Amino acid sequence: MEDETRRDDKQKRPKSNNEKEDVINQLPEGIPINILSKLLIHEAARTSILSRKWKNLWTYFSGTLEFHGSPIMKDMKKDMKKITGRSLQMAMEIMYDAERQTYINWINELLASLKSSSLRGLKVWFPMKNVTDVDNWIRFAVCKKVQKLELYFGYAIDYVLPLQLFKAERFDSLCVLRMKSISVTEEMLEYLLCNCLLLETLSLVDSEVPKTMKVSVSGLPLKLKCLELVRCWELTKVEILAEELVSFKYYGPNLETEFKSVSCLVEASFGGSFVEFVKESFMMQIKVLKLDITQNSPQVIYWLSQLPMLNNLKDLELVACGDDSIILGACDILLKASPSLCRFTIKMLNTEPTFRTEHNFPKECQYNIKELELVGFCGAACEVELVMHILENAVELKKITIDTRLPTKPKLRPLGEEHFKTWNCKENRMRAWRLKDRIPPSIEFVCL
C-alpha cells in the first residue's frame, strides 16, 4: 500500500527543469529544426533559452525570412505624413534613415548567423537607398537556394535585377518570384525562364520590362502556372506559350497579345485601359474572371458586347465606379454571357447615394447565378435597381451579401480623401437593411 502511495506521489510531482530539458533533448534528430523552420525567425531565435542543445539550433533555420521594416520605421512613416513644416520634416527623414540603417544592420547580422544550406523563402519589402545591401541580399538568396523570392525596395532607387548574381551559382530552386518597382531586362527574363525550370509564379508590378515580353522557351516546357503583369507601362506586346499556365493577370494600357498554347488557363484578371482581351479564344475556357473597368470610358460597353459566351465561367468579380449606365450595362452584358455563373461580386467605387441615371433593363432575361455580393454599398439608386433586377431574373438565387464597407481603392484611380470622410457605414447599413424587406425570405441575406 505504501509502495502504491509512493508511486502515486511520484506521478503527481511536477517535472523539474532538468526533466523538461531531457524531454526536449530526446526529440528525434531533425525534428527540432523542422519545428523552428515553421516559426517566424524572431520566434525561432527565442527557443535558444529552452536548453543547452537548443541554444544555437535557430541558426539552422530553413523557413521563410520576411523583412517589412521595423515597427519604429512604420510609425515614423505615419508621423511624417502628418508633418507640415519643412524643417521638422527634414529632421524626421534623418531620424527615419538612421532607424532604417539600424534595421539593415540587424538584417545583415542575422543573415550572417544562419548556417542552413537552403531557405524556403526570402521577402524584403521596404524602401531602400543603398544598392550594395540589396545586391548582398540577392546573393544570399541565390546561395541559399530559396524557393520563394519577393522583392520591393521602394521608388528611391532604380534597381535592375542583376543577372550576374543569378549566374554566380546554379539557381534551379526558384518556384515563386514576386517583384515590385524592379527592372527586368530581356536577358534576365530569358535566364529566369530557361534556368529556373521550377518557376511557377512570376509577378511584376510597377516594373520596367522589355517592350515585347516572350514568355516561352524553345524546346523546353514551362512550369509557369501564374503570370501577373501590373502597371508595366513600357510593355506593348506579350507572347505566351505556357501549357501549364492556370492564372493570368494584366493591369495596364492597351496591349498586343499572342496566346499560343494556354489550354490550362482558367483564371484571368484584367484592369486599366485594357479591354481587347475579349477577342482571345481562351476566354471561353475561363472559370474565374475579375474585371476592373474603373479606368475605361464608355467604349467598355462595346468591348464587353463582343464577348463570346462564357460557358465555363463560375465566379465573376466586377470593379467599377462612376457612371451608373456603364455599371448597369456592364452587369447586364456579363450576366447574359455567363450561363453557368454561380457567384457574382460587384465592387462599387465613388458611388453617391443621390446620383441617379435612368437605365432600362430588358423586361425578361433569365440569369443562373446563385450568389450575389455587392461591396461598397451606399444605397445608390443604381445599386438598388441592380439588386431588384437580379432578384426578378435569377430564379436560382440563394444568397445576397451587402457589404457597406469601402472596397480596396484601386491603384490606378485612388479615391479622394473627401470620399473617405463622407463615407458613413452606419447609414449605409441602415439602407441595406431597408433593402432586406424587399428580398424573399427564401434567400439568405447577409449585411456587413
**Distance between termini?**
65 Å
Number of extended strands: 17
> What radius of gyration results from the CA coordinates?
28 Å
Task: Based on Cα principal axes, name the global outline.
Answer: globular
Q: Helix/strand/pairing class, anyone?
A: alpha/beta
Supply the number of helical segments: 14
Give the overall average pLDDT. 81
Biggest beta-sheet profile: 14 strands, parallel
The largest sheet has its strands arranged as 1-2-3-4-5-7-9-11-12-13-14-15-16-17
Percentage beta strand:
15-25%
Helix content: 25-40%
Could you name the ranges where pLDDT drops below 50 across 5 or more consecutive residues? 15-21, 410-421
Q: How would you summarize what this structure contains?
A:
The protein has 14 helices and 17 strands. The chain has 448 residues and is of the alpha/beta class.
